[in-house]
TrEMBL record:
<dbReference type="GO" id="GO:0005576">
    <property type="term" value="C:extracellular region"/>
</dbReference>
<protein>
    <submittedName>
        <fullName>von Willebrand factor A domain containing 2</fullName>
    </submittedName>
</protein>
<keyword id="KW-1015">Disulfide bond</keyword>
<keyword id="KW-0245">EGF-like domain</keyword>
<dbReference type="InterPro" id="IPR036465">
    <property type="entry name" value="vWFA_dom_sf"/>
</dbReference>
<dbReference type="InterPro" id="IPR002035">
    <property type="entry name" value="VWF_A"/>
</dbReference>
<dbReference type="Pfam" id="PF00092">
    <property type="entry name" value="VWA"/>
</dbReference>
<dbReference type="Pfam" id="PF00008">
    <property type="entry name" value="EGF"/>
</dbReference>
<feature type="domain" description="EGF-like">
    <location>
        <begin position="296"/>
        <end position="333"/>
    </location>
</feature>
<keyword id="KW-0964">Secreted</keyword>
<feature type="signal peptide">
    <location>
        <begin position="1"/>
        <end position="23"/>
    </location>
</feature>
<feature type="domain" description="VWFA">
    <location>
        <begin position="343"/>
        <end position="517"/>
    </location>
</feature>
<dbReference type="InterPro" id="IPR050525">
    <property type="entry name" value="ECM_Assembly_Org"/>
</dbReference>
<feature type="domain" description="VWFA">
    <location>
        <begin position="531"/>
        <end position="705"/>
    </location>
</feature>
<keyword id="KW-0732">Signal</keyword>
<dbReference type="InterPro" id="IPR000742">
    <property type="entry name" value="EGF"/>
</dbReference>
<keyword id="KW-0677">Repeat</keyword>
């Protein structure tokens, strides 16, 4: 049978080249996070005792251009290394057809020498014999290294297209305790890089073409494995989704084309359709996870208001692109004015508990306040102090008269870390925070300390706060919810505390702070003696959420009193499925311990009886045996939603008849008739529409306690009882 010669027309289409800047590994994060990764790579520094050897592919498949990029990556890594013979040693091999030692690890003792030698390395060309280079290291070890006495790190920079086997020698190197990073160049074969790299492979495979990203990934892995500590404690290593690409040549059927075929036995030529194919180089994608370090950025606090866009400028600076209406103002903020004559000392927590991010946020807040509130005609003077274990007055009050100089001085205040000793800082601020000015009385401006913190104090704050207030310092607190109780204790009033929920909310506090700075606090009745019992409805009709709001309210009220056995004593009773004394009048001798105990009061649920709770107070709380003091005014403040109060009128009157004032705080949209009867003839009743509105009625309650209860306007005792709590002795 005659044979036929099949002629097949084949069109071969090859890419002449791909731009070297094409990203073959992409981390799928926001532009802002990419900027943070880049910024963090410039902050990294490794100063451990470690031997690092670069094994650089100089074969023809890599090419001279990619070899130069490999050198650039190695130099970038060296920028973050403390190179000397006692700490980080660096050496380099170039391999192609055979391995070539460029310089051993003990050749150079400075970063400059190592970088200069890497720059002078000459591309050799040849085959890609990665396996031979690895076997050489297995035989000879790290030349000039310290053997296994220090961690050994091998950084292989290659396209992963070896012409020999690499799996076995790579496995043997890793079994010797050598940490292997596989860094791709040009169009790497990722499968081989994974074979070369240590476990976990996702953290040891990188791409040299994206230099800052690769350096960040390398040092992030070293930091996670405790080989190096290379960044601020506020920087975090986090996983991010990423994608790696491989350039492969594939054959693709395009269609059919006319071709001819014939035989030797005849002169005939036959036309036929033959397959028509093309060869293409295409990118194949591989999803992966990349671990990168990011650090707090200057725009994290969202400093630009009113729709402005924050543009970072390096690690700690930024500028705002503002809408037209706010283009002339700092941070796109409306211009405020501070008309009152005051000296303000901003007290910033710079401790480890506050974190670098929180410290930078506090600095940004002060800068924005100064820019938005002060002018050339302002009578206010501002200073800034930093504290952790010690107080440092970074900007003395009144040192800078013009705003630009003041703002520039704030940029130079460093984060210190250390313990959070707020009490010590308050005492030092009272003694030295405002300099040695001798002006007194009417000639001295009002002095204000604005405390900014996100970290609870590690020392006692009540005493130093009283000391500061005794020296006529007005204390204001700005912080997160975590430090609300402490700030209320320091300032002496929840009205002097500003709480923010997120960074932008912090900057929204500036107008409120300005108003508080120029307001004068009203004197209260803190120094007058009082036995005070709060009675909280903890029944199912209230619910745990509303009960928590009642707890917060009574804590705020307690801050208005000087709690100690000689002045004000406070007790707490809760009622629901049962009546329970959370703590008695003589249980907690300090305001701080009372506040903590109020937070721990139990929610009971069930059906409550206000009458039973009032009788409980009469028999077991407001008695001499339980700490009530003869001759001292007494008051019960009852908070309830109104249900279960039908039986309370008679027990309430029984308390009033024994010299105890009773105030009813009824919560709910409709005031129940039982509460009106319970309020008594003097109408001792406060009606609140909702539990969330309790805070707006604190002043009325304090006025009632400081007025009628302390003046003795409550009805006098009609007789005596075995355990009198009023003015009679047993």
């Amino acid at each position: 049978m005659p044979s036929f010669l099949l002629l097949e027309a084949i069109c071969v289409f090859l890419f002449a080249g791909v731009p070297p800047s094409l990203p073959l590994q992409e981390v799928h994060v926001s532009r802002d996070t990419i900027g943070k990764i880049s910024a963090a790579s410039k902050m990294m520094w490794c100063s451990a005792a470690v031997d690092i050897l670069f094994l650089m592919d100089g074969s023809h498949s890599v090419g001279k251009g990619s070899f130069e990029r490999s050198k650039h990556f190695a130099i970038t890594v060296c920028d973050a290394l403390d190179i000397n013979l006692k700490r980080v040693r660096v050496g380099a091999f170039q391999f192609s057809s055979a391995p070539h030692l460029e310089f051993p690890l003990d050749s150079f003792s400075t970063q400059q020498e190592v970088k200069a030698k890497i720059k002078r390395m000459v591309f050799k060309g040849g085959r890609t014999e990665t396996g031979l280079a690895l076997k050489y290291l297995l035989r000879k070890g790290f030349p000039g290294g310290r053997n296994a006495s220090v961690p050994q790190i091998l950084i292989i920079i290659t396209d992963g297209r070896s012409q020999g086997h690499v799996a076995l020698p790579a496995k043997q190197l890793k079994e010797r305790g050598i940490t292997v990073f596989a860094v791709g160049v040009r169009f790497p074969r990722w499968e081989e890089l994974h074979t070369l790299a240590s476990e976990p492979r996702e953290q040891h495979v990188l791409m040299a073409e994206q230099v800052e990203d690769a350096a960040n990934g390398l040092f992030s892995t070293l930091s996670s494995s405790a080989i190096c500590t290379i960044a601020s404690p506020d920087c975090k290593v986090q996983p991010h989704p990423c994608e790696r690409k491989t350039l492969e040549t594939v054959r693709e059927l395009v269609g059919n084309a006319l071709c001819w075929r014939g035989s030797r036995g005849t002169n005939a030529v036959l036309a036929a359709l033959c397959p028509f194919s093309s060869w293409k180089r295409v990118f194949l994608t591989h999803p992966a996870t990349c671990y990168r370090t990011t650090c707090p950025g200057p725009c994290d606090s969202q400093p630009c208001q009113n729709g402005g866009t924050c543009v970072p400028e390096g690690l700690d600076r930024y500028h705002c692109l503002c809408p037209a209406a706010f283009g002339g103002e700092a941070n796109c903020a409306p211009k405020l004015s501070l008309e009152c004559r005051i000296d303000v000392l901003f007290l910033l927590a710079g401790s480890a508990g506050t974190t670098l991010e929180g410290f930078l946020r506090a600095k940004a807040f002060v800068k924005r306040f100064v820019q938005a509130s002060l002018s050339e005609d302002s009578r206010a003077r501002v200073g800034v102090a930093l504290y952790s274990e010690e107080l440092v007055v970074a900007v003395p009050v009144g040192e800078y008269q013009d705003v630009p100089h003041l703002v520039r001085s704030l940029d130079g205040i460093p984060f210190s870390g250390g313990a959070t000793l707020t009490g010590s800082a308050l005492r030092q601020a009272a003694e030295h925070g405002f300099g040695s000015a001798t002006r007194t009385g009417q000639d001295r401006p009002r002095r204000v300390v604005v405390l900014l913190t996100e970290s609870r104090s590690q020392d006692e704050v009540a005493g130093p706060a009283r000391h500061a207030r005794a020296r006529e310092l007005f204390l204001l607190g700005v912080g997160s919810e975590a430090v609300r109780t402490e700030l209320e204790e320091i300032t002496g009033s929840p009205k002097h505390v500003m709480i923010y929920t997120d960074p932008q909310d912090l900057f929204n506090q500036i107008p409120e702070l300005q108003g508080k700075l120029c307001s004068r606090p009203q004197p209260g009745c803190q120094a007058q003696s009082l036995d005070l019992v709060f009675m909280l409805d903890a029944s199912a009709s209230v619910g745990p959420g509303n009960f928590a709001q009642m707890q917060s309210f009574v804590r705020s009220c307690t801050l208005q009193f000087d709690v100690n056995p000689d002045v004000t004593q406070v007790g707490l009773v809760v009622y629901g499925s049962q009546v329970q004394t959370a703590f008695g009048l003589d249980t907690h001798p300090t305001r701080a311990s009372v506040l903590r105990a109020m937070s721990q009061a139990p929610y009971l649920g069930g059906a409550g009886s206000a009458g039973m709770a009032l009788l409980h107070i009469y028999d077991k709380v407001m008695t001499v045996q339980k700490g009530a003091r003869p001759g001292v005014p007494k008051a019960v403040v009852m908070l309830t939603g109104g249900r279960g109060a039908e039986d309370a009128a008679v027990p309430a009157q029984k308390l009033r008849d024994n010299g105890v004032s009773v105030l009813v705080v009824g919560v709910g949209p409709v005031l129940r008739e039982a509460l009106r009867r319970l309020a008594g003839p003097r109408d001792s009743l406060i009606h609140v529409a909702s539990y969330a509105d309790l805070r707006y009625h604190q002043d009325v309650l304090i006025e009632w306690l400081c007025g009628g209860a302390l003046r003795g306007d409550a009805p006098k005792a009609q007789g005596s009882r075995r355990e009198p709590a009023g003015g009679q002795q047993p």
